[in-house]
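I'd like us to work through together how a protein chain folds, taking it slowly. To get us started, please write out a protein record for me. Go ahead whenever you are ready, and we will take it from there:
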Amino acid sequence: MHLLPDSVRRLAAWCAVILLVAGVVYVGILLCTHLRAAVVPVLLALLGTALLGPFHRRLVRARVNRSVAAGLTCVAVVAVVGGAVYIVVAALIDSGDQIIASLRDAARGLAEHFGAAGTSLDDMASNARELLGRFGGTAASGVISGVSVVGETIAIAVLALLLVFFFLRDSDRATGTLRALAPHGTADTLEAMARRAYRAVEGFMRGTTFIAFIDAVCITVGLLILDVPGALGLGALVFVGAYIPYLGAFISGAVAVLVALADRGFVIALWVLGVVLAVQVLEGHVLQPMIQSRTVRMHPAAVMLAITAGASVAGILGMLLAVPLTAAAFGVLHELRARYETPPEPEQLET
């Protein structure tokens, strides 16, 4: 080994470190995949605690009991999310027949202008109920697995909500518990790493909430100007959907366009589509890189790569958790670097 140049030995050492870290990360991902029923609620609860922590602290400063404040915070979240879902689902149920009729009329209009290409769209719209029936029949064959997935999702959501309650209520004891569990002589370092990681997650949640608020306000104003019914409920859906990267924006935008198509016609639906696309362009090219890169302190390219990697590992849930987990890892690395980086010698400073 001594026969090799110093540069080659350093490269070999770095390669060994990278392989070791990659192996540990890979094994950790496998363990989390096998234990996802317990790991996912904890991660979601940490995100919820980071988001709801300021509201809970305000209640505590107002001399509200910590348990009561945590309970009120959780009830408020359930009320907001449940109310938004109820409003949107009710609007879709009420306008379902109108949406199908509007799709049929729009397809017939396209058939008049584009001939054979439009005729195929007309046939698709006319047979929408038959297509949905066939799809439903296919889906019914897997009803047992579907029920198990729904049941697992509900169980994860309930467990995450309960964990949010306990995390909020006992947040004042977190530092003491962490220091008590830390190995001898590492309590200060471990606490500093945990604080940096948690601040990074808080930054992500604040940035996402701010972006979601701007998206919801812009789309709601556009829907109100275009006189689309249920504009407030659709805006609430946009706000909630913004926490799921890419897919949430697509679903909420599609719902808004369908509701506009059912009640206001094809032209207004195109205007709504334009508003949704304009807001998404504003978010993707301006708000997301600018706000998330500052609150999470990550380069926009790193944010996009983290989301892509998370989606490849765990789908939608991976997209949701990838950026805050990566930001927490970056925070820990920055803290370790600040603590253990060797300061330059005086001669180096002078040169």
